[in-house]
Amino acid sequence: MKAFSHFLNELNEGSTHAALTADLAELLRTVQTTGRAGALVLKVKVSPTTKTNSGQVDKVTITADRVLSLPKPEQPSDFFWLTEDGETSRNHPRQHSLELRDVASTNPPQTFKEA
After folding, report:
1. pTM over 0.70
2. Rg of the chain over CA atoms, in angstroms?
3. Can you tell me whether residue 98 is helix, strand or coil?
4. The predicted structure's pLDDT at residue 106
């Protein structure tokens, strides 16, 4: 039996092997930068093409399907309250706001004497 690596080098005149090599390099770089997992899947489909007079298959078609799933960087999230109408709000819809204002001091602070 021929080694799978030899078969892969022959498949599509080596273009499948070259594409898988490039996909693996991209996957490794992305895992390194994101710190998250990814996957590279190779699916090999073998279909009979012709049969001999005795019913034996003497020719097949082989198709390689590559699926590269790169890890996605973690997406930041944000926090919102929902109003009764289903709208987003930065403020709690059932909590009153406290109007604050700056009070400037016109009198110097008072000191108290002990009795």
Report:
1. no
2. 34
3. coil
4. 66
- As a whole number of angstroms, the distance between CA 30 and CA 32 comes to 5
Predicted pLDDT of residue 115: 65
Cα–Cα distance measured from residue 107 to residue 115, given in angstroms and rounded to the nearest whole number: 24
Q: If you write DSSP's letter for every residue of 51-90 in order, what string do you get? A: E-TTS-EEEEEEEEEEEEEPPPPPPP----EE-TTS-EES
The Cα–Cα gap between 89 and 78 comes to 11
Average pLDDT over residues 50-77: 91
How many of the other CB atoms lie within 10 Å of CB of 16? Answer: 21
Q: How many CB atoms lie within 10 A of CB 92?
A: 10
A 10 A CB-CB count for 19 gives 15
Pair 21, 5: CB distance under 8 Å? no
* Integer Cα distance of 73 and 23 in angstroms: 18
Angle among Cα 10, 11, 13 to the nearest 5 degrees reads 65
